[in-house]
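About this split. The held-out portion is used to measure sequence recovery: a designer receives only the C-alpha cells and must propose an amino acid at every position. Recovery is the fraction of positions where the proposal matches the reference. Here is one held-out target exactly as it appears in the evaluation file.
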C-alpha cells in the first residue's frame, strides 16, 4: 500500500528514507534511520519493530541481509511484510512477502533500494530507480525526485494521502542534524512534501 526508497550518499555518508502512500501519517511508522548506522522502510502490513530492532541489529554489526533474516524468522506474519534496509556501508537487505498485495516488488541498486506494494504496476519502482540514478543535486533532493517519479508513474493504486522524508548523517548543519518532514493528509502529498522541503532549505 506504499512505495519507498532507502538510500546512502557515498560522498557525505548521509542515509535516508522517502515514502508515500494512500493511508494517513506514513511518516510515523514506515521510515527509520540513524546516522552512521542505517535506514529502513517497513511497510505493507507495517510492523515498526523492523525499524526499531533493525537499527539495533545493524549497530551490533549485523549486515542488513542477516538482520532482516533474523527478524523474519521471529515473525509469524512475515509474508504480509515488505522491508528494505541499507546500512552505512551501502549493503542492502530486502524482502517482499508473498501475501503483500499486487503489484508488489522491490529493486536493489548501488547505494539504494526501492520497494512498493498495492501499486498500479512495476513501472512505479522502475521510475523511482531510474530517476534516483540520474538525479543531480543534494541527497535529499534526489530522494524527493525519486518519490515524485514513482507518484507520476501511478503510485499507490488506491490514491494518495501522505508522504515523508527522513535524512540523517554527515552533510547536515549542526543545529539541524537530521531532516524529518511529513505530510499527513493532503490531496497532493508528494508535491506538498517538496514544497515543505523548499521552505526548510531557507533555514539551513
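Reference sequence for scoring:
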Amino acid at each position: 500500500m506504499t512505495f519507498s526508497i532507502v538510500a546512502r550518499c557515498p560522498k557525505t555518508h548521509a542515509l535516508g528514507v522517502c515514502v508515500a502512500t494512500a493511508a494517513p501519517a506514513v511518516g510515523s511508522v514506515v521510515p527509520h534511520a540513524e546516522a552512521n548506522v542505517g535506514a529502513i522502510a517497513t511497510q505493507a502490513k507495517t510492523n515498526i519493530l523492523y525499524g526499531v530492532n533493525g537499527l539495533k541489529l545493524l549497530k551490533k554489526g549485523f549486515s542488513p541481509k542477516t538482520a532482516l533474516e533474523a527478524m523474519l524468522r521471529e515473525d509469524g506474519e512475515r509474508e504480509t511484510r515488505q522491508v528494505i534496509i541499507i546500512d552505512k556501508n551501502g549493503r542492502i537487505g530486502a524482502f517482499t512477502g508473498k501475501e503483500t498485495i499486487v503489484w508488489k516488488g522491490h529493486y536493489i541498486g548501488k547505494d539504494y533500494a526501492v520497494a512498493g506494494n498495492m501499486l498500479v504496476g512495476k513501472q512505479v519502482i522502475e521510475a523511482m530507480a531510474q530517476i534516483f540514478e540520474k538525479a543531480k543535486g543534494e541527497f535529499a533532493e534526489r530522494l524527493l525526485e525519486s518519490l515524485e517519479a514513482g507518484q507520476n508513474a501511478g503510485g499507490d493504486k488506491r490514491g494518495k494521502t501522505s508522504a515523508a522524508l527522513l535524512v540523517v548523517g554527515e552533510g547536515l548543519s549542526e543545529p539541524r542534524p537530521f531532516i524529518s518532514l511529513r505530510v499527513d493528509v493532503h490531496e497532493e502529498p508528494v508535491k506538498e512534501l517538496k514544497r515543505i522541503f523548499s521552505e526548510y532549505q531557507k533555514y539551513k
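Annotator remark: The helical segments are 49-59, 64-73, 123-134, 139-152, 189-201.
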